[in-house]
Amino acid sequence: MTQTPEARLAEAGHAIPQAAAPIAAYVPTVQVGKLLHISGQVSFKDGAVVTGRVGETMDVEAGKAAAELCGLMLIAQMKAALGDLSRVERIVKLGVFVTSTPDFTDQPLVANGASELMLLAFGDAGRHARSAVGVPALPRGAAVEVDAVIAIRD
Description:
Protein name: RidA family protein
InterPro entries: Endoribo_LPSP/chorism_mut-like, RutC-like_sf
Mean pLDDT: 96
Oligomer: single chain
Organism: Sphingomonas lacunae
Pfam families: YjgF_endoribonc
Radius of gyration: 15 Å
């Protein structure tokens, strides 16, 4: 793949948003050595947090779309921290939190929204380890939140 992550995303119809500012006492990213830790990112659509509960007010596809938007925000944070997405060596791990009903068990399908976006943007370097966890509530009523660990080049 010779295209940049930005070009691959644009070709698929995705625009990288402005990186969101923290809403509490934390920073969006912390670099330790060659690892970039990215705080949990929620999904935004038309300037508002995507809210809902998968299995109640949202179906799997809507949850997956929300996870994809979280992935775009992760990429926005990478770009803000690194200046250039070509510095991303590997997506190491995603942690995906899905607001869902107690009987909903398809969190991995929802999480695919973020995972598939990383593969689209970064190719083989986008393959990662992952957790997909159901939770009763997330900040601001968000439907999905995703955090990440990224390996970076100097």
